[in-house]
Amino acid sequence: MKILNKYNTEEFLKDIEYENISVVQEIIEEVKKDGDKAIIKYSKMYDKEPVENTNAFEVSKEEIEEIVNSLDKNLYDAITYTVKSVEKFARAQMKTVHQMELKIGDSILGQKIAPIERILCYAPGGNYPLPSSACMTIIPARVAGVREVILTSPNIKPETIAAAHLAGADRIFRLGGAQAISAFTYGTKTVPTVDKIVGPGNKYVTAAKKYVYGKVDIDFLAGPSEVLIIADETADAKLIAADILAQAEHDKDARAYLISTSRALVDNVREEADKILETLETKEVAEYAYNQSIAIVVDDIREAIQLANRRAPEHVELQFEGAEEYKDKFRNFGTLFIGKYSAEVFGDYCSGTNHVLPTNKVSRYRGGLSVFDFIKIQTYQTIDENYAKELSKYSSILANAEGLMAHKLASDLRGQNGI
């Protein structure tokens, strides 16, 4: 972990480049043109466990049943616990949005809540199987009332299949990469189209989502995973080192940031991280990402907060005295963990909040995945004659100012001149 001077934070604040549009564009257009044939071609090129024919695209109901029935009991219990926790939080979120009507005389302006009809949940399957991502994407969609929820994951493992089924997926596919994003956007003989694609993926999946946006909706563009920890001299160096390496082991592009008011703590964290790395099973990946990560020593918590809001990271951990009092000072983050017991790993798995979160400064303008990503707020209005006359007066003036004379006529006919 590198230590930066607090007056030279350019490397800390710079965006991470992760797109590769030229390669992705070629894949997407070929799948759009050649369908299933192109999917098989690119699966053989890029997947560790390629699909050889269209029969292998989708996991059968018989295979799902066999996998769930043979699942290790402890893992089964952990998945069902996660499902219940995420569902509980998602249902609480859903209660905060509702249909409403505003009455103006005998006129009514209103909104209704409608779920998206069919969505695709993408679960990564490159470095590690991620059954947790299946839960995080499927459950809020189900709670929101989505009619059909599909999950896809490359090199899909039994635990991901089980999690997808227990979370409520209607269909499960073995497809991944830009070829999967293209297939579910444009459809093939074997793969259905969807209305929205959500979930984390590698840089090619992210670039593919950006390319197809507009034809389908997406959640957001997510880059490498990241955590920012703010700590003072009271923090536990070993806990911080463990949290940093937990982030670093995601992949070599992952980043961890430590901002502290104590240089001694930073040194202790680095020592603890070195000790953990000696026996860490994921050392090859974790050590690489850890060596690219950054620590900054500041004079006070105020400076730390300013840097955090500028970095706008995915995860923020607050491990300093009186942290609860400062939580409202943080404006830009995917999710916030307050206190030493609030480990980022709990959010990754089973505390209940969603782990599909904005990275690479996207938290400046949106939060993490939630039930709100799977609903549409649709407005309607019933205008009576009296209110129409009032509206007509101003609509006609505005239409005339814009030079839209048919607009003015449509307003005039309902307004001062009568119908």
Offer a few descriptive terms:
Rossmann fold; globular; 419 residues; 5-stranded parallel sheet; 14 strands; 6-stranded parallel sheet; 16 helices; 3 domains; alpha/beta
Protein architecture, described:
This protein has 419 residues and is an alpha/beta fold. The protein contains 16 helices and 14 strands. The strands form 3 sheets. The protein has a 6-stranded parallel sheet, with helices on both faces. The protein has a 5-stranded parallel sheet with strand order 6-5-4-7-8, sandwiched between helices. A 3-stranded antiparallel sheet has the order 2-3-14, with no helix packed on it. Strand 2 (100-104) and strand 3 form a beta hairpin. Helix 2 (21-34) crosses helix 8 (177-186) and helix 5 packs parallel to helix 6. The longest helix is centred in the first third of the chain and has 22 residues, at 73-94. The chain is globular, with a radius of gyration of 25 Å. The model has no long low-confidence stretch (mean pLDDT 94).
The poorly predicted ranges are none
CATH class of the largest domain: Alpha Beta
Q: What's the alpha carbon Rg, rounded to whole Å? A: 25 Å
**Shape category:** globular
Summarize model confidence as the mean pLDDT: 94
Number of helices: 16
What percent of residues adopt helix (DSSP H or I)?
40-55%
- Biggest sheet statistics: 6 strands, parallel
- Going by CATH, the architecture of the largest domain would be 3-Layer(aba) Sandwich
Give the strand tally.
14
| Oligomer kind | single chain
CATH superfamily of the largest domain: Nitrogenase molybdenum iron protein domain
Summing up helix and strand content along with how strands pair, one would put the structural category as: alpha/beta
Strand content: 15-25%
Amino- and carboxy-terminal Cα gap = 74 Å
Strand order of the largest sheet: 1-11-10-9-12-13
